[in-house]
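Sorry, explain these tokens?

***
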Amino acid sequence: MTEDDLVATFAASLGITPPPVTFTGESPLVSAFAVSEFAAAAVATAGIAASSLADDPAPVTVDRGLAAAWFSTALTPVGWELPSPWDAVAGDYESADGWIRLHTNAPRHKAAALGVLGLANEVSSPDRAAVEAAVAAWGGDELERAVVSAGGCAAVMRSADEWARHPQGHALATEPLVAWSAGEVAAVRENWRATAQRPLAGLRVLDLTRVIAGPVATRFLASLGADVLRVDPPDWNEPAVVPDMTLGKRATRVDATTTVGRDALERLMAHSDVLVHGYRPGALDAIVSPDRRRELRPGLIEVVLDAYGWRGPWSERRGFDSLVQMSSGIADAGMRWADASKPTPLPVQALDHATGYLAAAAVLVAVGRMRREGVSSSARLSLARTALELPAGRSPNSPEGIAPRPALPTTRIATPWGEADLLRSPLTVGDLAFDYERGPTDLGSDEPRW
């Protein structure tokens, strides 16, 4: 499948007709899948949606090398280093009958996994060898169920055929890539001050998302001038990706489990134009119900993401890109392609990033509909459903995954941690200026107000 084919599929899911799209340069991504084409097409789709806001949509040009780089990291620290994105326990383990991945970056997920494995006393300083030995005594499916039931995150490695036969795989096959729902009559607020270069200037986007798809979506919206306010709970942190994922945004903390925190969240919703959230189905509804959200902000545009889809037995399961790659057959296919002895994922977290760009495109399409038709729209996406669009690759067998990265244009910017080099946007679309009025910020740096 070519980039043009992927763009056509993505655009159809959004209900838009793409203008001419040109792809330039080369991508360094090497995989069992056409991940380079996938990345370029997802970025192109976000550019198409941005272009569609204009009365006369401009052609879209995508630099493949830059698109691939943004699917990895947009910021390169200068004179300082980011911590590892992975906890010491996180990773792939051999079970009694195959492979399983434990995702333990969040403290509560780590505690859940180690508790199931009988290693609760090792949460503070786990011995990986002890984890390996404990996992080896379990059947993969049994351990996966036990960890998930305990509130943790795990995924057995399945083949694509096994996933297609799985009840969740069946459910995903019936879901659209972007599931739309019609809203109500809605008008654009006066705070939206669109210009030819900054079509989202003044648009208020409330960002209730964390690693990585949702933050990618809202980061892209910020590059078009949106006022993005990210909200995290008091105890959340993700230091390895915060500089990349807060680019262009403000960031605050709210404890929505308290009356004061819930009231603060409701005030923010009442004055928002767009809500992007990545809670599991029903989780946000338990805090602020859909009826209450409509009461607070009639016509609010909502774009929602989850890991495993919105139907089926796993629709409420916690998940991350690396876990979905294990579940859906991607890591298994990569292992066979690379002739490797262990699961081989994509060279980048492409499901996260592609879903993020598609979610940003959905917001842009919904904003355009509100402006032209006076109605709001909402959309749902998932990493697992996006994975179904990942085509088989044509790359030569190579275990490296990422070829040497060519020199790419950057701009030196200031961050709270030191200077960093920021990649140029991979998109050229008419007069649009894909840049950022704010640099990265640490979580909780701002007050919970617009």
